[in-house]
Amino acid sequence: MQHLKTAKALALASACAAALWTGAAVADPDLTAELVIDGELHLVTRAPSDDVVTPNLPERYSGWLFRTADTRALQMDDFANPAMLAVEQGADLWSTADGTAGQSCQDCHGDAEESMAGVRAHMPHVNANGVLWSMEDYVNNCRTERMGAEAWRWSGEQMVAMTSYIAMQSRGMPVDVQIDGAAAPYWEQGREMYYTRYGELELSCANCHEESYGRMIRADHLSQGQINGFPTYRLKNAGMVSIHNRFRGCIRDTRAETFAEGSDEFRALELYVASRGNGLSVEGVTVRP
Amino acid sequence: MLTRRDTLAIGLGASAVAMLPMAALADAVEDAVAAYTGGAAMEDGGVTITAPEIAENGNTVPISIEAAGATEIVLIATGNPTPNVGRFTFGPGSGAPMIATRIRLGRTQDVMAIAKMADGTFKTTRVEVKVTIGGCGG
Amino acid sequence: MTDVRPRIRLPRNAAAGDSITVKTLINHDMESGQRRNSAGETIPRQIINRFTCEFNGAMVIDAALEPAISANPYMEFEALVPASGEFVFTWYDDNGEVYTATEAFEVS
Predict the structure, then answer these.
(1) I want to staple A47 with a disulfide (CB 3.0 to 4.6 A). Which of A90, A279, C43, C48 is the partner?
(2) CA–CA distance, A102 with A22 (Å, rounded to integer)
(3) Contact flag C74-A84 (C-beta cutoff 8 Å)
(4) A250 part of the active site
(5) Distinct helix (H) and strand (E) counts, chain C
(6) In the predicted model, is pLDDT for residue A117 greater than 80?
(7) What span, in angstroms and rounded, lies between the C-alpha atoms of B124 and B73?
(8) What percent of chain B clears pLDDT 90, i.e. is strictly above it?
(9) pLDDT band at A26, cuts 50/70/90?
(10) What does the DSSP assignment read for B60-129?
(11) Cα(C21)–Cα(B94) distance, rounded to whole angstroms?
(12) What is the mean pLDDT of chain A?
């Protein structure tokens, strides 16, 4: 609890500082912008905060709100959205047999639109053996244990295409990850990491994404660091980026020895960060700078 | 691995770097323009470029150009290592002399469009697009 | 290079003689030839250097592309549809490969 109190005090202090600091350094999210896909599907980009997970946030905001109008527009057209290329590839992989069992995902799971609906909204999720797994773990477990196929690299092209395709099946559903029961110890671990300062720059996730969202860090407009929009097409990479890949990059930017993709630490962090977005819509695949 | 000194140098030197190859760049742009127009005069205006004032990332900048009466449009990024971006020729099946695409801009610069008219004359316009060099983009 | 998959978007309907908006997207790294790998060697250029669109044999647009075109090139342009017919889209890769897509279009 001490942790949170300190964080609250810091947040208050920096909020005051931010209020006094006028000028180009402050760039708020456009809270009036509406995320509507193809003029039809409305996605929730603002969700109420709570006292348990995000007591220091007045409201939960999707990263989409922090982007320029051009970047936001790229995500609102399913055709023009470059991330959809990965979704298509994922759809292909879904129905392609792979491994010694000669089966495709489709052979067991049928139509992804039905079988995978809601999956992304609850990830990461404690498995039947009480171990926290990310979506990538479930996919690879199927591949190695049931399909007789090789595991995919965590952020390799195929895995990202598959997680993109599966994420799309939950698009529009509210993020709703479990943080109690068997998930509790992982969630606590993730929360601890979120407020730990890493690296030479001694920055914690909270320093930027809880205390400073809406402000500019050099030329980047800081968001709340939500992951409801992952996997995302990053304009910088002109390619898809997974959650753990992004975590790695963030921690590396604090000049720290970063954790590995698929590490226990990142799974725990993923659970905690996902819970900070509970209530926001799963955005499927998104476009971010 | 960037040291703090490197980072500072890059930060301070960005403007210095921006100034250094300007002469060479200007030549490259002049050459590109001359190669296309053959040195003919270009009329200012009659071409519309729609691009963001500030590109969120220089790797993918949405842009569209239209020029009423044009048979062809050439796009030039005056600050890129090689200025030519594309040449878009409109044929008999074209519905309008316009093109929208996404381009890479290496730094803040003017993007220039040259439109060739049916009578062989040229029109041109340019807009500045600010390109930010990240912050903590991972 | 992975499977290259072109995507085409045409409007649902149009009247004969209309001008319609055509959107195309294709996955391609558009390797500029400016980047270096971790060993410091320049990664060779490989881009789609030309894109064409025809409708019923009439050329709609012929685009010569340079490395400054972003990865996964997106093209949006206008095409005349005097009658029902077929669009043919062609992308030319530096490596000699040619990717094509066709799409029928009916006018009302």
Answers:
(1) A279
(2) 62
(3) no
(4) yes
(5) 0, 7
(6) yes
(7) 9
(8) 74
(9) very low
(10) SEEEEEE-TTEEEEEEEETTSSS-EEEEEEE-TTEEEEEEEEEE--SSSEEEEEEEEETTS-EEEEEEEE
(11) 10
(12) 91
Min distance B136 CA to chain A CA atoms (Å)? 6
Q: Report the mean per-residue pLDDT for chain B.
A: 86
List chains adjacent to chain B, taking adjacency as at least 3 C-beta pairs closer than 8 Å: A, C
Contacts of A208 in chain B (CB under 8 A): 136
Give the burial string for C76-92 (b: 16+ CB within 10 Å, else e): bbbbbbeeebebbbbbb
Whether cis (ω within 30° of 0) applies to the bond prior to B81 is no
**C51 close to C90: Cβ distance less than 8 angstroms:** yes
Q: Half-sphere exposure of C10 toward its Cβ, with a 13 Å CA cutoff? A: 24
- Residue B12, pLDDT score: 46
pLDDT digits (tens, 9 = 90+) for A159-218: 999 999 999 999 999 999 999 999 999 999 999 999 999 999 999 999 999 999 999 888
A119, A68 Cβ separation under 8 angstroms: no
Measured from the Cβ of residue A157, the count of other Cβ atoms closer than 10 Å reads 15
CA distance linking residue C83 with residue B76, whole number of Å: 36
Q: Is the ipTM of this complex over 0.90?
A: yes
Q: What is the DSSP letter of A44?
A: -
In one-letter notation, the amino acid at residue C26 is I
Residue B96 has pLDDT above 80, yes or no: yes
Contact C61 B103 (CB under 8 A): no
In 3-state terms, what secondary structure has residue A143?
helix
Give me the helix-helix angle, A243-252 and A264-275, nearest 10°: 100
- The residue of chain C nearest to residue B97, with distances taken between CA atoms, is C78
| Element of type H or E holding C60 | strand C58-65
Catalytic residue among A105, A205, A208, A250: A250
Tell if the CB–CB gap between A79 and C7 is shorter than 8 Å: yes
| For residues B79-102, average pLDDT | 97
C54, closest residue in chain B (CA to CA): B93
Sequence-separated (6 or more) residues with CB below 8 Å from residue A197:
A203, A204, A207, A254
**Tokens encoding A231:** 């996997």
Q: What is the pLDDT of residues C45-101, one digit of tens each?
A: 999 999 999 999 999 999 999 999 999 999 999 999 999 999 999 999 999 999 999
A237: chain B residues, CB-CB within 8 Å? 59
What backbone torsions phi and psi does residue B54 show, to the nearest 5 degrees?
A: -125, 120
CA B27 to chain centre: 15
A236 pLDDT higher than 60: yes
Q: Cα angle at A164 between A187 and C67, to 5 degrees?
A: 125
Measured in whole angstroms, the distance separating CA A116 from the mean position of its chain's CA atoms is 18
- Closest to A55 measured CA to CA, from A16, A14, A8: A8
Determine if the peptide bond prior to A124 is cis (ω within 30°). Answer: yes
Asked whether the beta carbons of B75 and B103 are under 8 A apart, the reply is yes
Task: Indicate the pTM of the whole model.
Answer: 0.87
